[in-house]
């Protein structure tokens, strides 16, 4: 049986996935804590960007199409959780697989928010 906590986390992560898929800032804001950050390694250096990145990203048109998205796992310990998400995006020249590790905190009795996203992107030319 899936726990209430797991369902609440899935709801938050689904908002995030919908935001990524449809470039919907409203869906992002439903899932991301105002102080949330995103981090990755770019050109060998740590890159950390604030939640406001998504506001600009959502405004930009893109030829990329999300061809699949899936919650791979959820791990919960009290008021903290980790969700692993895989999103596959396709453009005219590349297929990009993004593996996201989302850290979530339970901010109220029935609400979880993403406080950090760390990710790895892998691209394969067509």
Helix content: 25-40%
Put simply, the count of helices is 3
Question: Number of DSSP strands?
Answer: 6
Count up the domains.
1
- Residue fraction in strands: over 45%
Distance between the termini: 41 Å
Give the mean pLDDT.
92
Numbering strands along the chain, what is their spatial order in the largest sheet?
2-1-6-5-4-3
Write down the secondary-structure element order: HHEEHEEEE
| CATH architecture type | Roll
Classify the fold: give the CATH topology: Nuclear Transport Factor 2, Chain: A
| Coarse shape | globular
Major sheet, described briefly? 6 strands, mixed
Structural class: alpha+beta
Radius of gyration: 15 Å
**Low-confidence runs of at least 5 consecutive residues:** none
- Which CATH top level class fits? Alpha Beta
Describe the 3D structure:
Helices cover about 25% and strands about 55% of the residues. The protein has 3 helices and 6 strands. The protein has a 6-stranded mixed sheet. Helix 1 runs antiparallel to helix 2. The chain is globular and about 45 Å long. The N and C termini lie far apart (about 40 Å). The model has no long low-confidence stretch (mean pLDDT about 90).
Name some characteristics of this structure:
about 130 residues, alpha+beta, Nuclear Transport Factor 2, Chain: A, six-stranded mixed β-sheet, 3 helices, 6 strands, about 25% helix, globular
């Amino acid at each position: 049986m899936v726990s209430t906590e797991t369902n609440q986390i899935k709801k938050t992560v689904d908002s995030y996935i919908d935001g990524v898929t449809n470039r919907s800032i409203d869906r992002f804001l439903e899932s991301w804590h105002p102080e949330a950050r995103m981090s990755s390694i770019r050109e060998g250096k740590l890159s950390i960007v604030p939640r406001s990145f998504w506001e600009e990203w959502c405004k930009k048109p893109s030829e990329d199409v999300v061809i699949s998205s899936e919650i791979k796992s959820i791990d919960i310990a009290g008021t903290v959780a980790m969700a692993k998400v895989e999103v596959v995006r396709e453009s005219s020249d590349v297929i990009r697989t993004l593996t996201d590790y989302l850290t979530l905190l339970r901010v109220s009795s029935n609400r979880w928010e993403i406080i950090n996203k760390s990710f790895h992107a892998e691209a394969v030319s067509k």
